[in-house]
Specification:
Shape: globular
Distance between the termini: 30 Å
Radius of gyration: 20 Å
Number of domains: 2
CATH superfamily of the largest domain: Enolase-like C-terminal domain
CATH architecture of the largest domain: Alpha-Beta Barrel
CATH topology of the largest domain: TIM Barrel
Bound molecules: 2-succinylbenzoate, magnesium ion
Number of strands: 16
Strand order of the largest sheet: 6-7-8-9-10-11-12
Order of helices and strands: EEEHEHHEEHEHEHEHEHEHHEHEEEHE
Largest sheet: 7 strands, parallel
Helix content: 25-40%
């Protein structure tokens, strides 16, 4: 049966949320985050929300909050308004001419998926073909001022029940912190993420002795050959994050031997349609996947939980509870983890109520189309 959806109105809200704990990666340090919430409304008044979780600066990917706002306002939202479609997979076709700009696309694509699953009366996880009723969450820890601060943070998160810990590394903050955490936690599922900052192999090869589950994105995004060479030399699996924006990128990386694990981020892939396609391809070629995060507010966080319910997400995902990042989240209930496990909601659409009042109180800019 064809149930055409036609989007008649779109809104964007730039929302600023304070982080409970400052987060530092190899490139930046943050006290608060601005994400753009996208609201799509159909002719019957049904609404779907998505989140553009771009960092404010172009250090993780080329996008910024301003570029996302501009691309969504000028290209993506005008492409969807007034167009009819039957399935959310068709929505990203409407902006097929727009290159790159994955974070901006992801927010609009997700809003269409949430709208569609709401109209159909199914959960987002079911709409995607998810099979898990709960997903295992890992935590991602930023670069801390000292090794003692890091050990305290690992203690806090493992005591909260998270079974996997990822440490951000950078030259000068790699072998020593990893050695310290490994000595204190010999059996912990531990992995590291360099966000593409390395240009030399030495420290990365030295990490091979610590039994890490993976080394995530050691080299620059486009440098697939460097990843393939390192993978030849070490036994720790290499995981790619920034390098993989399309299924074609994944195919290239697989054929080069540049990865053994894939981090799928809905934002980095440009939305749920592409994220699911990458999951399907990884499953075909035997690459285990997990869902990475971008410190999402509750909307993006709930979407990460839904996508992690797909069968190929066999490794713990960065879907830690809202409270790790935000004192109060923009969805009700907040995303919670019990002993590192998050339940996949069964309610229709996002499965969480969007807290319009909290959003309004934290909004710094809006646009209606
Ligand atoms: O590489 O996974 C990353 C945050 C900002 C930029 C890049 C990354 C991250 C994270 C966040 O690790 C993890 C999370 O959202 O829980
Ligand atoms: Mg990463």
């Amino acid at each position: 049966m064809s149930t055409e959806v036609k989007i008649t109105a779109a809104r964007m809200h730039r929302v600023r949320m304070p982080l409970v704990h400052e987060f530092q990666t190899s490139s930046h340090r943050k006290k608060f985050l601005d994400h753009i919430l996208v609201e799509l409304e159909d002719a019957c008044g049904a609404v779907g929300w998505g989140e553009i979780a771009s960092p404010s600066d172009p250090y993780y990917a080329p996008e910024t909050v301003e570029t996302c706002w501009n691309i969504a306002e000028r290209y993506l939202l005008p492409a969807v308004i007034g167009q009819g479609w039957d399935r959310p997979e068709q929505v990203s076709q409407l902006w097929a001419k727009v290159r790159g700009n994955q974070f901006a696309k992801a927010g609009v694509d997700v809003a269409a998926w949430v709208l569609w699953s709401t109209i159909q009366g199914v959960s987002l996880a079911d709409a995607l073909g998810g099979t898990r009723t709960e997903v295992t969450a890992g935590v991602s820890l930023g670069i801390e001022p000292t090794i003692d601060d890091l050990l305290a943070e690992v203690e806090r998160q493992t005591a909260a029940g998270y079974p996997r810990v990822k440490l951000k590394i950078a030259p000068g903050w790699d072998v020593e912190p990893v050695r310290a955490v490994r000595s204190a936690y010999p059996d912990l599922d531990l992995h590291v993420d360099a966000n593409g900052i390395y240009t030399e192999d030495d420290a990365l090869r030295a990490l091979d002795e610590f039994g890490l589950t993976m080394i995530e994105q050691p080299f620059a995004p486009r440098d697939l050959l460097a990843h393939a060479r390192l993978q030849q030399a070490i036994s720790t699996p290499i995981c790619l994050d920034e390098s993989i924006e399309t299924v074609a990128d994944l195919d290239t990386a697989v054929s080069l031997g540049a990865l053994e694990v894939l981090n799928i981020k809905v934002s980095r892939m440009g939305g749920l349609t592409a994220a699911r396609a990458a999951h399907d391809r990884a499953q075909q070629v035997g690459i285990p996947v997990w869902c990475g995060g971008m410190h999402e507010f509750g909307i993006g966080r709930a979407v990460n939980v839904a996508v992690s319910s797909l069968p190929g997400f066999t490794l713990p995902s960065d879907v830690s509870a809202s409270e790790k990042y935000y004192a109060r989240d923009i969805v009700e209930p907040a995303v919670v983890a019990v002993e590192g496990v998050v339940q996949v909601p069964e309610a229709t659409g996002l499965g969480h109520k969007v807290d319009i009042e909290l959003i309004a109180a934290n909004t710094v800019a809006t646009l209606s189309l």
